[in-house]
């Protein structure tokens, strides 16, 4: 339940803070006073489209905060939030900010969250029915969802969806295995060519790097011989080499050690240096024996590198990927040889998945038809008190498609048929319902759907559109009844609806210091009389309209506590 709403710098709103109660909360005010901005703020809070253009002139940021009592929906809601790392007690604080550069951020209890998580938790907190939302009833694609929600068929619809996904995966696999013979042979020839091309080249992982090094040596063979030869000679072979000099030093140190034992260890250290340098010299000698100026070898290396580069460009960029492509291609060729056996096995699995899908989908269809009968009865019962005494409503199942293919939503296609007046045939709802009829129909749907779930905040923005008089009275009664189990927020222009409020707010637009701002006042009983009289009579309130307003208020019994 929404307990507190704080709106700052939204359009013409400077700062508005509202505390809401259980039951029916009504907002009234003159046309253009900003009533719908309150609903817009709630929509924004729950992820509605927002931009920097909504920020009040002269300000750098707007924000909206809502405090919700989540005691009733705590277990389900807490599970979602805990999975996202958000701790929530009995109160949930939701906040949205939009800055002048267009950036938007969402917070729950001070922790930033994603818009995706916000969409998950929204159904546990609010159900907003804004102006024009009744047009959802003009979209046939929404009817199955509505029927499934009414029938509490979520678990079965998920089973159907999973069965469809299993069938669809096998169907795609079978289609791939069942390509035309010419396509299959063409694909096999491509794989065969690629495998033979790579296998013939016999690439080895790391071979290209090794050949690059060899090419560099071959291209600089004379320089390599010169450098390595000089180093080898200076270390070992030439007269006065480092090795010879170290030998002389060792002998002198041995002679010195025979005189003074304290320097005996120096001779061994010189030996160690000499042996290490001789190892380097021997390595250089072996290296020199391998280095040769060989144009033929250089040409072979160049040609091999060209071949490997061509393979790398064609099959992945590295020799490792070329070799992996060979393995994958060979696997495909092996699978091709066993294609018929695999295809038959897949066909068998596909048939089994199809039978399983239609079994579950048929059960869902049966449950939907049972739910449709109940929906028809309950909806008609809700609509008759709303000045639609002769209304007829029917859920029509399309039985004409004899070859139904599996669909994620099941095998059913439905339409809502509607007849508001005596003597009129049932026709598709989307073709004949007026705006006022759609408003009442949506209210009736909300009324029969709401008790099926946990209580929440239900918001109606001008649900009285297209209705008046006796019908308004019935709509008010319906809203009050809906508020027995839910918190209801309603924006209205009509006294016949506002009279049923448990809490009544007046929204006004004022100009102060050449700046427009919106204020919201919670009305006491006397103020309510005045507001209802204004709604009834306009600017000039007569004694008759005031008495009428008082009579309207006095005829409403005191609200019992909201059912938990």
Task: Walk me through the topology.
Blueprint: E1 2-10, E2 13-19, E3 24-28, H1 35-45, E4 61-69, H2 74-83, E5 91-99, E6 104-108, E7 111-113, H3 115-125, E8 126-129, H4 143-150, H5 154-177, H6 181-201, H7 207-219, H8 221-237, H9 242-259, H10 264-290, H11 295-315, H12 319-337, H13 339-383, E9 392-397, E10 414-419, E11 427-428, H14 429-432, H15 435-449, E12 457-461, H16 469-482, E13 487-491, H17 495-498, E14 503-512, E15 515-522, H18 525-537, H19 543-554
Parallel strand pairs: 3-13, 3-14, 8-12, 12-13
Antiparallel strand pairs: 1-2, 1-4, 4-5, 5-6, 6-7, 9-10, 10-11, 14-15
How many strand segments? 15
> So what's the CATH class of the domain at 2-131 and 438-522?
Alpha Beta
Low-confidence runs = none
Structural class, by secondary structure, is alpha/beta
User: How do the strands of the widest beta sheet line up side by side?
Assistant: 2-1-4-5-6-7
What would you say about this model in short?
The protein has 19 helices and 15 strands.
Annotation keywords:
564 residues; alpha/beta; Rossmann fold; 6-stranded antiparallel β-sheet; 6-stranded mixed β-sheet; 19 helices
Textual characterization of the structure:
It is elongated and about 135 Å long. Among the domains are: 215 residues, 3-Layer(aba) Sandwich (Rossmann fold); 152 residues, no CATH class. It is built from 19 helices and 15 strands. Helix content is 54%, strand content 16%. The model has no long low-confidence stretch (mean pLDDT 85). The termini are close together. 29% of the residues are buried. The chain is α/β, with parallel strands linked by helices.
